[in-house]
Every structure is written in C-alpha cells, then in structure tokens.
Amino acid sequence: MESILIASFMLFIVFVPYYLFLKNGSNIKNKVNKLIENEISQTGLHFSEKETWSHNFIGIDQDAKKMLFVRVIDDKSECTLIDLTKVKNVRIDKKVVIDKENKNSSSLEKLDLAVSLYPSGETILHLFDTDIFYKEEYELNRAEAWVKKINTFKNLVNTNQKAA
Fold first, then answer.
1. Domain tally, the chain
2. What is the predicted pLDDT for the residue at 133?
3. For residue 61, how far is the Cα from the chain centroid?
4. Which domain range does residue 132 map to?
C-alpha cells in the first residue's frame, strides 16, 4: 500500500507540472491567435495568400491590393498595412552572427523585410529578432518566399496597369 502511494505521488510530481506547462503554452497561443484574428477582422480584407507562424501573420488581399503584417509582442499587436500598388522594391535585411569558436557556424539574429514605396519612404516588417523570440522557424526561407510573392503581385499589377 505504501509503495502505491509513493508511486502515485511521484507520478503526480512529474505529470502535473508537465500538464500545467502545456496548458500555459496553449493559452498563450490562443491569446496570440485572438489578437491576430482581431487585427485581421478590423481591416475587412480577404486574403488569397496568407501565413501565420510564431507570433506573426502576413497576408495579401489581391482584390484590395493590400498586404497586412501583424506581429504580437507582450499581449500587444503591431499592425502594418501596405498598399501593394505603391511598392517599388522589396529586400531582405538580415543580421547573422558567426560563432567565434566555430567559424563555419552562424546563427540568424535579426530578419526584416524592407519595403520601399512610391514616391518615397520605406516600411520595415520585423520578421525575426532573437531579443524578442529566440526560436527560429525557417524565417529566412519564409522571407524569401514572401519577397517572391510580393514581386509577383507587383509585376501583375504593373502589367494590368500597362494594359489598361
């Protein structure tokens, strides 16, 4: 009987913190998703291209010719709406740190999409920053894919304007 109590107590000590840890992570994710969904609904846009990852959302509404980027930090959402008809250029700005001990190893520290606009101005979309979120989720591949999507849409808009 005593060994059953000890075994039950040990299971309780191990699994309760694990359960609470998972539940807390789920609550944070739900909170982030609600903040992103709130920003999306406020814009009234309908996205043909969209992606959500970590604490970020990016999407393109082809009919409205707009791109929305939302980033959630500390229960607050930062929203950037870009008129794609005014996009001049898109580039990736990244900061990579090379490991001092192993020169062949490097890690991504910051990653931004810099969107140049007509007639002047630039909007920076902060996709990744190790000071805010340490875990990288293929951000460079994601940034490259979104540069292609934005440029494809930009070229489509330019072609349609020339045809009209």
1. 1
2. 67
3. 17
4. 2-163
Distance CA 107, CA 116 (A): 27
Residue 19 has pLDDT above 70, yes or no: no
Report CA-CA distances (Å) from 47 to 69, 89, 104, 123, 152: 12, 21, 40, 20, 15
Buried-state track 124-135, b at ≥16 Cβ within 10 A, e below 16: ebbbbbeeeeee
What 3-state class would DSSP assign to 153?
helix
**What is the sign, positive or negative, of the torsion defined by CA atoms of 118, 121, 125, 129?**
positive
Residue 6: what pLDDT?
Answer: 80
Cα angle, residue 52 at apex, residues 23 and 60 outer, rounded to 5°: 155
Q: Per residue in 61-76, pLDDT tens? A: 999 999 999 998 887 8
Calculate what percentage of the chain has a pLDDT beyond 90: 34
